[in-house]
Amino acid sequence: MPMDRDQFEALVADEASAERYLLRHCWENHQRFCPRCKSRKNYRLKSGRRRCARCRYTFQDFSGRWINNCNLSCRDWLRVMNLFAAEATARQVSLELGLSYNTAYKAVNTLRFAIMAHALDAKQLLGEQSCLGLTLSGRMLKDRPGPCGKVETPVFGIMDRREWVFVDLVPGFDAETILHFQLNFQLGLVRQGNVIYTDRYQRYDTLICCLGGSPAADYVRSSRRGVSIDTAPEGFWSYAGQRLLKYHGVTPQRFPLYLKELEFRYNSRTRELLPLLAACVCDLVPDFS
User: Fold this and answer.
1) How many domains in the chain?
2) What does pLDDT average to in each consecutive run of 10 residues of the chain (289 residues)?
């Protein structure tokens, strides 16, 4: 749900207003603490930065937080978040705000990463034992080989309870597993672009993954035959299905960012998104090691 236009314009009227709004999401009761050791004993330097009295770490208000990425002003960050809440693409953000495409893409991707880091299963998705082929290095999302020495094609199961939805990583599954179930156990399957999804499987309404360059992609043909989730009159799939078709060129390793974004949007559909996004991007980057 978007913020009231007049209220938003008041927030971005000047840099000071935008900064005050974002700082409220960084420091509870304006109590600064060291982002490295969490000590509340610190003092201000002449430069305006602060220094921790315990570990001597020098920091500013946004140090160690997602918002410290991209080198954007507070006003631009709020504008990016407002456009992101309205489902603008990185290219649309770039054109609307006069930013380079790379800067707009980095900011939008930072928002998606911050959303994933706040998911219930964030540690499973981003921790050292994750099979996604992703790792968090500072504030950057890096591809790396999975535990078996290759980059995996993660499969997610969607559990839709109408009031809320959970997009769950299915351990041990990849695109080849889904193909095996289709060929040997007649599991219904639909391919639309690089995305495939299936009929009900155990507790999941559907299994879904992005094929990318997976060897299974050559054996899975596009299909117009629907599965049970296509007939659901409402709920997550009616909300997310068409949106998923817009994701062109997304790799299997980046696909989870978009799935968790849709989970976040659906579960927050009756709430104002800007404060939720500000809370995510103003939080400290977690350590999943």
Assistant:
1) 1
2) 82 93 89 90 91 93 89 95 94 95 93 92 77 55 51 84 90 86 85 86 92 71 71 84 75 86 94 95 84
Residue 160 lies in a domain: yes
Predicted TM-score of the model (pTM):
0.87
Residue 205 falls inside a structural domain: yes
Looking at the domain assignment, is residue 229 inside a domain? Answer: yes
Q: Which domain holds residue 167?
A: 153-252
- For the sheet with 50-52, list strands across it: 42-44, 50-52, 58-59
In a domain, 13, yes or no: no
